[in-house]
Amino acid sequence: MTELEAGRAGALATPRDAASAWRSRYLDLAVALIAFVALASLPLFTGSKALLDFVIRCSAYGLFATSLNLLVGYTGLTSFGHGMFFGLGAYGFGLIMQRLSVPIPVAFVASLAITAIAATIIGAICVRLKEIYFAFVTLAFQMLIHSTILSWPSFTGGDQGLRGGIPRPAFLGIDLSNHVHLYVMSCALLILGLLAMRQIVQSPFGFTLRMIRDNAARASFLGIDVYRAKLTIFVLAALFASMGGMVMALFVSGAYPEFAYWTISGEGIFINMLGGVSTFLGPMVGTVLLLLLNDTVTRFTEYHGIVLGIVILFFALGLRKGLLDFVAEWVAHRRDAGEGRD
Fold first, then answer.
1. Of residues 195, 188, 206, 202, the one with CA closest to residue 30
2. Which of 212, 203, 221, 239 is nearest to 73 (CA)?
3. From CA 179, how far away is CA 175, in angstroms rounded?
4. In the chain, which stretches have pLDDT less than 50?
């Protein structure tokens, strides 16, 4: 059964199918809780600040890369400018905390609201365009935002970024100036973000996105409002990317123009190439691989770009898919071969 047929079949789901869907959701919740407990308990077993910092960075980039895969892998929208929302989250959160001195949860929600408004305006223009035009117009918007940051030093700090640190007043007994508290909060945001995105892709709306990816014209013929669906997932993906930007802003206690530069979007695409776009956790695997590569290669050579280029060629020309996609395909092939022998 194709994904298009699966999506149509979802409308005629039986009570047994509904029960299976609820079991899947409970399983996802259980896995999320186990993952959070495992990550949150890590400081009890190690005093390595470098390891905790690595997980925080993985949280920021993992949210960003997985949100990009909502567009690339599930909807067929390749965005070259998705990093603008990463930067918008970082700058929005940092500026609100510096200038308004509001509680952190208020700044967090306000930053998401700003991102949602910007994404709605930008998405309303971009999602009407064909694939290649969509990709480059999103890049154009990202460069516009990056140029605005550089040319408005009195507000954004210009090429120096937001200086002076981000205030971190305690709330609900949580003090993000404490490194362990910041680590646990980052893990919580990562798990909550991944769980929410998992529910999106497993929902009927997620199957609708797959239908649009596979054949937008046919999906429209079946009565699906393709424009509205694309705009909705564009805004949702922007919100999760913004969350990643806020985690990074808290981690570095600031925001810098590089957070909104086109290279951030390039890293997101590279991460998805490394991990894979057809499996939900592929971007997380790619995030870990890229950060490990960056941290390892830069210790031995200043030509880390050459090494990363070789890695890209290996995945693009050798595996022709991401690592987790390759593993999932290999496991499925072995399973099918075993069933054939039986």
1. 195
2. 212
3. 9
4. 1-13
